[in-house]
Amino acid sequence: MKKIVLGLAAVIAIGAAALWQFQGSAQAAPNVAFTDLQGKTVTTQDLRGKVVLVKFWATSCVTCIAQMPDTIRHYQDLKARGFDTIGVAMQYDPPNYVKNYTETRQLPFPVVIDAQGKIAQAFGDVRLTPTAFLIDKQGRIIKRYLGNYDEQAFLATVEKALAS
Question: DSSP alpha helices (H): ranges in the chain?
């Protein structure tokens, strides 16, 4: 009986995660302020007119670190066309680890340390990494990504958003 209950709970959790990740209706991105490691602050309101990837990550997250070269490349390839990226380090990530990683890997986009967890909370209480949100030029979340994702589908979604 215990195995059945655990199996059912796992199926429900997977289904809920899939629904959450792939639901189609765009919702407004929360109005939050991102203060990067250099002390520069930008809000989601300031980012209107750009397509923005807000990526929650941690230095201890193997998948996050594996995705970082692609994240850097996408940012560099698309920034001139109005694409931006903000890396949000999770509350539990030691700030000195985040700063060291950001500096040694020369991350070209703003990196924010979510020290109080308020940004993660505003984006639906993000707890798993990597979790990313793609925001369109009107400030709406058009896609949520949890874990690994198909790069070609991601780029197609970004291209469509940039063209609109």
Answer: 2-22, 62-78, 95-104, 118-122, 151-163
CA distance 33 to 122: 11
pLDDT tens, position by position, 2-26: 555 444 444 344 443 434 344 446 7
With tokens 């940039």, the residue in question is 162
Q: How far apart are CA 90 and CA 129, in angstroms?
A: 8
C-alpha 153/C-alpha 149 separation (Å) is 8
CB-CB contact of 74 with 83 (8 Å): yes
The rounded distance, in Å, linking the Cα atoms of 73 and 79 is 10
Structural contact between residues 124 and 99, judged by C-beta atoms closer than 8 angstroms: no
How many Cβ atoms from other residues are within 10 Å of residue 42's Cβ? 17
In this predicted model, what pLDDT tens digit does every residue of 16-75 receive, in sequence order?
343 434 444 679 999 999 999 999 999 999 999 999 999 999 999 999 999 999 999 999
CA distance 121 to 157: 25
- CA–CA dist 33, 123 (Å, integer): 12
Beta pairing class for 131-135 and 51-57: antiparallel
SS3 54: strand
